[in-house]
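Recall the central idea of this unit: under ordinary conditions, the amino acid sequence of a chain determines the structure it adopts. In this exercise we apply that idea directly, starting from the sequence alone.
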Amino acid sequence: MWKILGVDSLYLEFADVWKRRIVEVVAEDGGDGEKFASIMKDSDVRYMMNGETEIHTFLVEVPEDISGDDLQFLADEILRVAKTADFPFISLNGQYEKCQVIFDANREPEILGLDKAEGYSAGAAFAPILNGWGGAGRQNPFS
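Accordingly, the structure predicted from this sequence is:
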């Protein structure tokens, strides 16, 4: 059975369980649980597994306006939990699994699809690249 921070979990719910449990564990282990929870509530967590390296990744997408101090606080608290908790971040049948936590505050504008950012198009976004080719590439005249 898979466990995330000591709690049984199904593969499809790893991100949600990790986010909920890391907030609980920080508060239980004497950290500043209220501050941690307030920052994490505005963060999205995604889970990915690299089958080649067998490394589990929790990608924490924090708000763009997060301060450097708050980001450092998140990292410090997560490292403290990793070093002091009686259980691994992720395990399978009681065996430790390699894992990493990545923070991301960079939001690229969406240039295609339903949530396309106003004023952006694939042609405009890639124009500097195409222009750098010295005329070897052509822009789509319909963008």
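The mean pLDDT is 84.
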